[in-house]
Amino acid sequence: MTSPTFVARSLTWKLFAAQLAVIVAGSATLALVALIVGPRLFHQHVQHALGFVPLPVVQHLDKAFSEALWLSLALGIAVATVTAAAVSWVLSSRVVGPIGDLAVVARDISRGDYEARVDVGGSDELTVLGRAFNEMAASLASAEERRHQLLSDVAHELRTPLATIDAYLEGLADGVVEPNADTWALLRNECGRLGRISEDLTKVSRAEER
């Protein structure tokens, strides 16, 4: 079975990879647009400002502009990528952290620890999810407590008629109790009591199924 920690780490990496892909795609788009639009605008401004420019000067200016453009793009994209990646990693961790906690608590509840709860704080969607999860856990704990109480009550209710029947049967076997009408009526009454308890349990089981 996959552990909640592994799931959380896997989800963190998936979110980070998706955000990093967006960053890379945005940076590539920025570089492409700058390389297509930048030189044309530069040539227009040079011609507007200087008029006729000798070819060697134009070539020198193009080279200088290209080097400056490439260096600026490289530095800008590198800084933006590192910054955005760091922010994306922090955000991914903050999003995945509560989900990992939910996974851990869900595993504990599935193993019978109905008192396990998720630490919640804030007002975002994950907090709302955590509170709803805690309410579900509390409902399960209450249902489990009622189940234990029901079993205890049933055991108590069964013990009395069974003890009575056993005592009378032993008395009949030893000859201490006479097999008269009252004895048989009492035994039938106790058996009927057991039947009613069984019927009540069937009704409770059907009610829970619905």
Describe, in short, the structure shown.
The chain has 210 residues and is an all-alpha fold. The protein has helices at 4-50, 55-110, 125-174, 181-209.
Molecular structure report:
With 210 residues, the protein is mostly helical. 87% of the residues lie in helices and 0% in strands. It is built from four helices and no strands. The protein has helices at residues 4-50, 55-110, 125-174, 181-209. Helix 3 packs antiparallel against helix 4. The chain is rod-shaped, with a radius of gyration of 39 Å. The protein starts with a helix and ends with a helix.
User: Helicity range of the residues?
Assistant: over 70%
First-last Cα distance: 31 Å
| General shape | rod-shaped
H-E string? HHHH
The proportion of residues in beta strands is under 5%
Rounded to an integer in angstroms, the radius of gyration calculated over CA atoms is 39 Å
> How many β strands by DSSP?
0
Summarize model confidence as the mean pLDDT.
Answer: 80
Largest sheet: none
Q: What oligomeric state do these chains adopt?
A: single chain
Enumerate how many helices there are, as a single number.
4
Classification by helices and strands: mainly alpha
Low-confidence stretches are: none
